[in-house]
Amino acid sequence: MVALACRKPAELGLPRVRWTCRSLTAQLLDDGVFTSIHYTTIHLLLEQADLHPHRLLYWKRSHDPDFVAKAVHVLWYYQMARTLRQGGEWVFCLDEKTQIQLLGRKQPDIPMRPGCPRRREHEYVRHGTGNLILIHDVVEGTLFADTPAYNRSGPLTDALEQHLALYPQAQKLHYILDNGPTHDSAHTRRWRAGHGGRVRFHFTPIGASWLNQGELALSAFSRRYLRDRAWDDHRQFSPHVQNSVQYHNRHDACPFDWSFTRNRFREWNRCRTSSTGH
């Protein structure tokens, strides 16, 4: 039973993508493993073997040849962000969320009450999409946001130009970001070169955007201020984002307690590249 549960149904010529207790029971009976058995017994046997055919866990591994060097470089800036601030260098993380669905509802939500959660009519109305650029201050946890109409290099550098104007006293501004196509395009490189070294980009390893704190900040911002919102018009998106950022900076701004230091990374990387290959 365990051997069969660990095989894909397709290996047996079945169109199923995964086993259920009933389908596994039927296959075991067809194979003559049992002459008679109930699917509830198979369920108990799966529990005893700690097998969960209905579950799927994703994993991601970076194949960047410079993975270690880039990761250590980014982690150094996280570790030294406060010290760099004292010398006039500010560290930020940038991330983007594109094609945000702005969905409205034909009927208003019914508010929750004791014993009954908030209820929502299932039909929706499309009001287009929105784009969001979010910049996270590593030391203070404050946010800067822009909502460009398009996900292109021009709107990105326009947003960065607005952000630079907020820090005239900074000698250098460091941005940690992933390897999105607009982040290292010819237009963006020319814009960066035009600032004479005052603007520095630090890219996370390819396939390791989880090292970017901006990704965490964007996820938290989306959960708090965007998710489950019903939109009446796409023109609400930009004012709502700016109001939310102002509210966040006044009430919720907090730096991440980033404990994944360079030393912990090296230890983790040794385990990852051990003989097990994980």
Question: Concise description?
Answer:
This protein is α/β, with parallel strands linked by helices and 278 residues long.
Number of E-type strands:
5
Low-pLDDT parts are none
Please state the second-level CATH architecture of the largest domain: 2-Layer Sandwich
What's the pLDDT, averaged over the residues? 93
Features:
38% helix; five-stranded mixed β-sheet; Nucleotidyltransferase, domain 5; alpha/beta; 278 residues
If you had to describe this structure to a student in words, what would you say it looks like?
- The structure is a single chain.
- The chain has 278 residues and is α/β, with parallel strands linked by helices.
- The chain has two domains: 2-48, no CATH class; 67-270, Ribonuclease H-like superfamily/Ribonuclease H (Nucleotidyltransferase, domain 5, 2-Layer Sandwich).
- It is built from nine helices and five strands.
- The chain has helices spanning 2-5, 21-30, 39-48, 67-86, 153-165, 186-193, 213-226, 237-252, 262-272, and strands spanning 89-105, 124-137, 143-146, 172-177, 199-203.
- Strands 3-2-1-4-5 form a five-stranded mixed sheet.
- The longest helix has 20 residues, at 67-86.
- The protein is globular.
- The chain starts with a helix and ends in a 6-residue tail after the last helix.
- The model has no long low-confidence stretch (mean pLDDT 93).
